[in-house]
């Protein structure tokens, strides 16, 4: 148990009959009139649903002990993703539902944080950006601005993103893992 005064970003709470919620952001509010309260934005760990929730200051909330471990993506075994703990070299199988959109940016050998709760993986945290190679994109034609100066490109992981017209097949680029946007070329 913890107090709402002790909340931190990334902390995992157990609310609503055992559902796990990760604190995305929080703000302590002390209005001029009335008691203080804590305004939070919570993300449900399993579904990704984001909600705003307000607690009275000092309210006790149940925390979940989530163990975040640095792991390396090894390979895909059928539908399951296999990650190796970089400290113990133990391998774990992670369900595709848990990996979610992170699968678009995973290559063998990539490092990720795997959050474990009661012996099973509950979510994957990738770095904010990854460097990937463009597997295929059509050549951009100078003066073609019908698409706002961007064109579709397929990454080496199979994911499709929008890139500027000057990007060519085989080029290495930096991609934002949160929204799949192009961040720049890698020299």
Automatic annotation (TrEMBL):
**Where can this protein be found?**
Cytoplasm
**Which InterPro entries does the entry link to?**
Elong-fact-P_C (IPR015365), NA-bd_OB-fold (IPR012340), Rib_uL2_dom2 (IPR014722), Transl_elong_fac_P/YeiP (IPR020599), Transl_elong_KOW-like (IPR013185), Transl_elong_P/YeiP_cen (IPR001059), Transl_elong_P/YeiP_CS (IPR013852), Transl_elongation_fac_P (IPR011768)
Protein biosynthesis found in the keyword field: yes
**Keywords for the protein's UniProt record, in alphabetical order:** Cytoplasm, Elongation factor, Protein biosynthesis
The record describes the protein's role as: Involved in peptide bond synthesis. Stimulates efficient translation and peptide-bond synthesis on native or reconstituted 70S ribosomes in vitro. Probably functions indirectly by altering the affinity of the ribosome for aminoacyl-tRNA, thus increasing their reactivity as acceptors for peptidyl transferase.
Per the similarity annotation, which family is this?
Answer: Belongs to the elongation factor P family.
**Name used for this protein in its record:** Elongation factor P
Q: Which gene encodes it?
A: efp
């Amino acid at each position: 148990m913890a107090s709402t005064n002790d909340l931190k970003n990334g902390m995992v709470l157990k609310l609503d009959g055992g559902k796990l919620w990760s604190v995305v952001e929080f703000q302590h509010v002390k209005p001029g009139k009335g008691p203080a309260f804590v305004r939070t934005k919570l993300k449900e760990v399993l579904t990704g649903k984001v909600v705003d929730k307000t607690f009275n200051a000092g309210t006790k909330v149940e925390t979940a002990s989530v163990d975040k471990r640095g792991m390396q993506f090894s390979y895909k075994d059928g539908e399951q993703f296999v990650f190796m703990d970089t400290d113990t070299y133990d391998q774990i199988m992670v369900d595709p539902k848990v990996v979610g959109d992170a699968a678009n940016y995973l290559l063998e050998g990539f490092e990720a944080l795997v959050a474990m709760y009661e012996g099973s993986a509950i979510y994957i945290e990738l770095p904010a950006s990854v460097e990937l190679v463009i597997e295929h994109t059509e050549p951009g034609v100078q003066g073609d601005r019908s698409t706002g100066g961007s064109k579709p490109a397929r990454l080496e992981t199979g994911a499709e993103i929008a890139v500027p017209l000057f990007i060519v097949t085989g080029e290495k680029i930096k991609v934002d893992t949160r929204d799949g946007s192009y961040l720049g070329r890698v020299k």
